[in-house]
Amino acid sequence: MRFIKPYVLLVIAGIFLLLGYVYFSFFSERLNRCTDVVAVTPWLAPIVWEGTFDAVLIDNIYKPMNLTVATTVFAVGKYVRFLQDFLETAEKHFMVGFHVRYYVFTDRPHDVPSVNLSQGRHLSVIQVPGSNRWQEISARRMEIIQTTIERQIRGEADYIFCLDVDSKFHAHWGSESLGRLVAVIHPGYYEQTRDRFPYERRPASTAYIPMDEGDYYYGGAMIGGFVEDVYTLAKVCRTRFEEDAGNSIEAAWQEESHLNRYLLDNKPSKVLSPEYLWQDFKAKTKEVKVIRFSGVIKNYADVRPNV
Ligand code: UDP
Ligand code: MN
């Protein structure tokens, strides 16, 4: 029996080592570079990420339409303290070059800061009742948005965005965000599977979503679209919230839960990536190239009427 010479074995082992090295270095480099994002929903609505649109081109389409964008923001109780930064940063980054009408809802109209607004931008203060339960303030937003659209916004704007006040703009948020019904993927759940989403899971609630249903977990801090589409959304969510209240049930995340149920049945025509709703306490991830709007870090005990 003839033995293979040791040096031949060494050469063979060397070749395998080299091949293994080439393969793994190529593979791991691919892994490191893998920051691709999905830019379309299964129902073919765009998911807006940096790099998927041409801001100048989109602006050139929308600007000649002479649109007005309503922006509602609630600053009830101590939340008035967030208004200054919210408005100042919105003036720098939000729908620049468009007509913008801010609607500030507050129980403290005298504490609304005076912020210099660019030409074509207006601010109205609308007095609303205070409350000693943040859940109620948060929940009543839908009702107030509904009634204010009926009374005022309908005749004054084409599109509307409803935003959380405890936030700041950090980069461009423009006409790429316009659409019939626009929702944002919650930054805490864009990497999770749907069984992990904090949807309302009790069938007794009208916001109930079974474990095997759901597209995305949408953030309640931003909802947008045509005034009429957001009106219907607000009206339906408000009605369901009240129906639940009548049955002594409050959905897990109040209006965010109802919003998620509504958007499951009424698919958004455009979905904004978490670039449009980040959280300051959350470290930036590889996929997020630009943070456009982000919730500030707040001391809940300090700003909320109850904890
Ligand atoms: N809000 C308010 N006063 C309150 C509680 C809430 O004005 O006492 C409004 C405010 O616009 C806030 C939104 O409701 O941005 C949602 O509440 P919060 O930001 O506390 O919820 P979170 O983003 O922490 O889930
Ligand atoms: Mn918030």
UniProtKB/TrEMBL annotation:
Gene Ontology BP terms: carbohydrate metabolic process
Binding of UDP-N-acetyl-alpha-D-galactosamine, residues: F74, A75, V76, Y79, D164, V165, D166
Lineage: superkingdom: Eukaryota
Gene3D superfamilies xrefs: Spore Coat Polysaccharide Biosynthesis Protein SpsA, Chain A (3.90.550.10)
UniProt-annotated binding residues for an alpha-L-fucosyl-(1->2)-beta-D-galactosyl derivative: H186, E256
Bilayer disposition of the protein: Single-pass type II membrane protein
Principal location: membrane
Chain ranges passing through the membrane: 7-26
CC cofactor note: Binds 1 Mn(2+) ion per subunit.
UniProt keyword list: Glycosyltransferase, Manganese, Membrane, Metal-binding, Signal-anchor, Transferase, Transmembrane, Transmembrane helix
Similarity-based family: Belongs to the glycosyltransferase 6 family.
Name under which the protein is recorded: Globoside alpha-1,3-N-acetylgalactosaminyltransferase 1
Gene of this entry: LOC110538060
